[in-house]
Fold this sequence. Notes:
A: 7 strands
Amino acid sequence: MNAFWVFNHSDLTGVVMGTVVGAASRFLMLKSDYRQYPAYPHGKIIHLALGTIAAALGSVAVPALLKKDFTAITFLGMAAQQFRDVRNMERNTLSAIDKQELVPRGTTYIEGTAVVFEGRNYLSILAAFLTSMGVSLFGWIVGLAIGIVCLGVVLRFRKGKTIKDVALIEFAPVRVEGPDAYVGDIYMMNVGLPENQEIIRRIGMGFVLSPRSDDAKVTLTNLGQRQAILHDVSVRLGVYRDDGEPALLPLAKLDLESGKLGILLLPREHDREVALRAVSNVPLLEAAVRMPTEANYRKEGMLPDG
Amino acid sequence: MAKIIAVVTVKPDKVKGGLPAFLTADEGEMTHIAKLLEKILDAAAHRLGDDLFIIVDRH
């Protein structure tokens, strides 16, 4: 018996290759970046284990179905139930951690992250299922090709849209006039104490985000998206803030007239290029995206009421 | 919702009602008391004009 023995058993080949591709796709999607979430290594172990189980379930389903064992589909249902718990687990953990953050993520960001964790398990089931199907129906070479395509697709869609897709990001000067702090022309807040005014004057960094479209205007008004920007940028640039310093708060305020969003940051890192990149790369939250222009679109000549 | 939890002023006639009010002798003392209250109460001190601070709790 040699290593190619497995290729003479197409069912087994399918299951093994499907599981490997599924687990590999979960591994590729599990990129731990500046957010350090999931935390290395224990958080990763949890998700790799779950991803492998997901992949195994997906790849086993194909040979079972080919043998007309239709109860196999109920296993996928059971798997879905398990992975819904992954979302709950992530939500609970992140919500608990969030209370101890100087600049919280906010519930919208947490929901978004939790949904991504659940969704990625289903993607790895799908990758495993397709690979296993390719092997079972057309042989291992086709299965391998499908697996590689799946991994490519996963890599391509790993990164979602970011803020720079919806808004034009510009630096704006931070002004403190008496107790009033401004970013560009946008009024941010009233800061009472002279020393806090001085800190904001010295440390403060301002951005103005101009929406690129009417849809983007609605997205930028979302409070969850704004909190996500403040959290992410504060993680990347550091934050000049402590507990018991309520006046030193990174803040995002809307210019109601133009729909522009003013952002006041108190960063530790003052490199403008790094700061610009940090704001540009904030993920666009799925829950914040709205498409009002699509709903309001009317064909020419149509009556106003449709 | 934000709540005003204290007032610091040099002009007592500016403040009426059921709030803790700290009446100070001059502007320097007013700023100092406002700063201490901000740190102690973890509530932001906001300045409304030259002679009045309010301490606002946003928890």
